[in-house]
Amino acid sequence: MRKLTTASRRDFLRKTALAGSALLVADFPLLAFNGSPNEKLVVGVMGTNSRGEYLASLFSALPNVEVGAICDVDSKVLAKTIALIEKKTGKKPKAFTDVRKMLESKDIDALVAAPPDHWHAPATMLGVQAGKHVYVEKPCSHNPAEGEMLVKAAKKYNRLIQMGNQRRSFPGVQHAMQELKDGIIGRPYFAKGWYSNNRGSIGTGKLVPVPDHLNYDLWQGPAPRRPYQDNLIHYNWHWFWHWGTGEALNNGTHELDVMRWGLGVSFPTKVVSAGGRFQFKDDWQTPDTQTITYEFPNNTAITWESRSCNIYPEEGSTRGVIFYGTQGSLVIPGGDDYRIHDEKGKLVREVKSNVGQIEATNVGMGETLDALHLINFADSIRGKTTLTSPITEGQISTLLPQLGNIAYRTGSVLHCDASNGHIINNSAATKLWTREYEKGWAPTL
Ligand SMILES: NC(=O)c1ccc[n+]([C@@H]2O[C@H](COP(=O)([O-])OP(=O)(O)OC[C@H]3O[C@@H](n4cnc5c(N)ncnc54)[C@H](O)[C@@H]3O)[C@@H](O)[C@H]2O)c1
C-alpha cells in the first residue's frame, strides 16, 4: 500500500479536478484517479455528538481511510470523539472548533458533515469551496434554495457531494428497485411510507447562560442569532423551524427517497399536508403527527405518514414503504429485506438481505449496512465507482419533505412545476423557499 504524502495528495486532488473538468457535461462526473485505487483518504468529521461520531467510527474502520480531524463546537463532544478514534485506531485526530479552520488543512480530502440541519448546506459549500469532497448528512439542506445551490456547486467546484440517504447503497433495496423496474408488480403507481417513534416532551425552555463547553455562536453559524435556551442542544433543535426541519426531513427523507426511486419519479405536481403537535404542549414547533401526499406527472402518487409520539408499527416495523402496482405489491419494512405480494395480497416471495441483521438505532440502520454508503463515497473519490446518491438525487429527495412542510406551514395545496419542483402562484409558500441568514453567513455559489 502506497501512502499519499501531502504533496502527492495535492497532486491527486489536482489531477481529479482536471480530469473532472473535462467531463463537466456529464451529470455525475466520474473523477478519474490516476493512482492506486486503494490510496489513503483522509476525512475531517464535523459535528460528532451522535450521528457524526458514528460516522467517524465507521470511516475509521474502512481500509485506507483515516479520520484526520474532528470538529465540534462542544469541547466535551470533541474530546470524547477524539478519545474514541484514538482508542480505535491508535492515532489521534486533530481537534477543531471552527470548521473553516479544519477546511484549511491541506491533508484533508473530504469533509463529513453531521451538524444540525441549518449547517448542512453552508458547511457543504465551505467544503467544496475549499476543494474537499463532501459527505453531508440528510437532509442536505434546510430549505429548497440551498439544495439547488449544492447541485450547482458540485458542478462548479467539480467535487463529489454525497448525501447520507444510505438506503441507496443497501444491496437488498437496490435489488428491490431493480425488480420494480423489471415489472415484478406490474406498473407501480402508488407508494406509502411511514415512520413512528415514542419521543417524549421537550418541555418549556428557560433562557440560561450558555454552558462553558459550548461555542453557541458557531453552533448558530448561518442562522440569525437567538438567545440560548436549555431545551435545544443537543438534538432537540430538530423540532424548531429556525434550526431543524421536523420529522419529515429528519426521517421522512429516507422513505421518500426510496419511494420516488421505486416509482421512478422526481418532482411532484401537487403537494398537500396535514398534522399538528398533538401529543404534548411544549416548545416543539414542527408537527409530531403528519401526513404528506404528492402527485407526480406520470399517474403516480406518494403518501408519507409520521407519528413521532406513537410508535405503533405497521407491517411489523416502525418505518418502511409499500409499493402498490397493477399486479401486486412490494413491501420494504425499514431495512434491507423485502416482500412481494400478488394482486390478491398473497405473499409470493420474501427476500432476506445478504448483508445480515439490522441493528437499527437512533444513529442508523446498523454498522454493516450503513458502512456500505461510506465505502461507496470513498470508492467514488478514488474513481472506482460512482456515487449511489449524488447530490442531484439527494436534492430532490430533500425537496419532497421540504415541500410537505411548506404545504403544512402555509395550509395550502401546492402546485409545482414538474421540471424543477418550484411552487406556482403562491407567494406565502414561495417565501419559505429560502431563509434569512445571520449577516455574513449566507452561503454563496
Ligand atoms: N442518515 C441517518 O440515518 C442519520 C441518523 C441520525 C442523524 N442523522 C443526521 O445527522 C445530523 C446530526 O444529528 P445528531 O442526532 O447527531 O445531532 P446532535 O445535535 O446530537 O449533534 C450535532 C453535533 O453537531 C455539533 N455542531 C453544531 N454546530 C457545529 C459546528 N458549526 N461545527 C462543528 N460541530 C457543530 C454539535 O455540538 C453536536 O455535537 C442531523 O442532521 C441528522 O438529521 C442522520
Summarize the structure.
This protein is of the alpha/beta class.
Secondary structure elements and their pairing?
Layout: H1 6-21, E1 41-46, H2 51-61, E2 65-71, H3 75-89, E3 94-96, H4 99-103, E4 110-113, H5 120-129, E5 133-136, H6 144-156, E6 161-163, H7 171-181, E7 188-196, H8 216-220, H9 246-250, H10 252-263, E8 270-276, E9 289-296, E10 300-307, E11 319-325, E12 328-332, E13 338-341, E14 347-351, H11 367-381, H12 391-410, E15 414-415, H13 427-431
Parallel strand pairs: 1-2, 1-4, 2-3, 4-5, 5-6, 7-10
Antiparallel strand pairs: 7-11, 8-9, 8-15, 9-10, 11-12, 12-13, 13-14
The chain binds nicotinamide-adenine-dinucleotide (NAD).
Number of helices: 13
Question: What is the share of helical residues?
Answer: 25-40%
Distance between the amino and carboxyl termini: 38 Å
Overall body shape: globular
Q: Ions, cofactors, ligands: which are bound?
A: nicotinamide-adenine-dinucleotide
| Topology pattern, helix = H, strand = E | HEHEHEHEHEHEHEHHHEEEEEEEHHEH
Structural class assignment? alpha/beta
CATH class of the largest domain reads Alpha Beta
CATH architecture group name of the largest domain: 2-Layer Sandwich
Average pLDDT level: 91
CATH superfamily of the largest domain: Dihydrodipicolinate Reductase, domain 2
